[in-house]
Specification:
The protein has helices at residues 15-26, 38-48, 60-74, 97-125, 137-140, 146-166, 184-187, 195-201, 210-220, and strands at residues 6-10, 30-35, 51-54, 79-82, 128-133, 171-178, 232-235. Helix 1 (15-26) packs parallel to helix 2, helix 1 (15-26) packs across helix 9 (210-220) and helix 3 packs parallel to helix 4. It has one domain (6-235): NAD(P)-binding Rossmann-like Domain (Rossmann fold, 3-Layer(aba) Sandwich). It has a seven-stranded parallel sheet, sandwiched between helices. The chain is an alpha/beta fold. The radius of gyration is 17 Å and the shape is globular.
C-alpha cells in the first residue's frame, strides 16, 4: 500500500460522501468525516476508524477553524473531496432569489472556502488531491433545479481553471459527475421518481448506489492519478455519454 494520507470528505455523514469516506478508509487513508450533521458523521467515522468534525462548509469562520483543527491534530491534509451540497427540487416557477442564494452558499461558496483553506496546506507539502463532486445533470440538462445544475457546471469550470494554477504545487484537481444515485437525500425527495426515466437511458437496468461512485473518487484521490488534472469523470452507468 502507498503512504497513509489524511483525507477530508465534506458532507460525509450519509449518501455519496459516506461511501467515499468508506472507500478512502479502505485504501488505508485517515479520513476526516465533516458534516453539519455531527451525529451522522460520528457514526460513519466510528465505523471506519476516522475522525468526525461538525462543519458548515458555507461559513468562512467554521472552515478556518476546521482546517486549523485538522492540521493541528493530524498534521496534514493530502486529499480534499468537496462533496457537501444541497440537492433541491424546485421548478423554475417557484425558484426565487432566496432559494438561489441558499444553494449557491453551500454548493459554490462551500467549494471555494474549503479549497481556498486547503490548497496552502497541500502546497506546503508539495502534494495534494482535490476531487469535486459535480453531477451528470450538467451534461443532461435535467430540469427542476436550474440553480443546482448551475452550481455543478460551475464546479467543473472551477476544476478546469484551477488545475493549471495548482499543478506547480503537486496538486491535482478533478471532478466526478455522478448520475442519479440512491442516497438518503434522493430517497427523501421528488428526485426518487427520476429513476423512472433514468434507468431506461442507462446501460444497466438498476439504480446507481453510493458505492458505485466512490471508487472513481478514490482513484482520482490516489497517488497513481498524478497525471490526471482538470478533468471530469462521469460515473452514471452510461446514462449520459459525453
Ligand atoms: P445527501 O443529501 O444524501 O447528503 C448530503 C450530506 O451533506 C448530508 O449529510 C448533509 O448533512 C451534508 N451537508 C449539507 N449541507 C452541508 C453544509 N453546509 N456543510 C456540510 N455538510 C453539509 O446528498 P447525496 O445525494 O449523497 O449527494 C452528495 C453529493 O453528490 C452532492 O454534491 C450532490 O450534488 C452529488 N450528486 C448526487 C446525486 C444523487 O443522485 N444522489 C447525483 C449527482 C451528484
Ligand atoms: C440524473 O445530481 O444526476 C436527479 C438529483 N437526476 O441530483 C442529481 C439526476 C438528480 C441527477 C441528479
Amino acid at each position: 500500500m502507498t503512504e497513509q494520507r489524511v483525507a477530508v470528505v465534506t458532507g460525509a455523514a450519509q449518501g455519496i460522501g459516506a461511501a467515499i469516506a468508506r472507500e478512502l478508509a479502505a485504501d488505508g487513508h485517515r479520513v476526516v468525516v465533516a458534516d453539519i450533521n455531527l451525529d451522522g458523521a460520528t457514526a460513519v467515522a466510528t465505523e471506519i476508524g476516522g475522525v468526525a468534525k461538525k462543519l458548515d462548509v458555507s461559513d468562512p469562520e467554521q472552515v478556518a477553524a476546521f482546517t486549523k483543527a485538522v492540521v493541528d491534530e493530524l498534521g496534514r491534509i493530502d486529499i480534499l473531496v468537496n462533496n457537501a451540497a444541497l440537492v433541491p427540487f424546485v421548478p423554475w416557477d417557484q425558484l426565487d432569489f432566496t432559494e438561489w442564494r441558499r444553494v449557491m452558499a453551500v454548493n459554490l461558496d462551500g467549494m471555494f472556502l474549503m479549497t481556498k483553506a486547503t490548497t496552502p496546506v497541500m502546497a506546503a507539502a508539495g502534494y495534494g488531491r482535490i476531487v469535486n463532486i459535480a453531477s451528470n445533470t450538467f451534461v443532461a440538462g435535467t430540469p427542476n433545479f436550474a440553480h443546482y445544475v448551475a452550481t455543478k457546471g460551475a464546479s467543473i469550470g472551477f476544476v478546469r481553471s484551477l488545475a493549471g494554477e495548482v499543478g506547480k504545487d503537486g496538486i491535482t484537481i478533478n471532478a466526478v459527475a455522478p448520475g442519479l444515485t440512491e442516497t438518503e437525500g434522493v430517497l427523501g425527495s421528488a428526485h426518487n421518481e427520476g429513476f423512472a426515466y433514468v434507468l431506461p437511458a442507462q446501460a444497466f437496468d438498476r439504480k446507481g448506489l453510493p458505492a458505485d461512485i466512490a471508487p472513481a473518487v478514490a482513484f482520482l484521490a490516489s497517488e497513481k492519478a498524478g497525471w490526471i488534472t482538470g478533468q471530469t469523470l462521469v460515473v452514471d452507468g452510461g446514462h449520459t455519454r459525453n
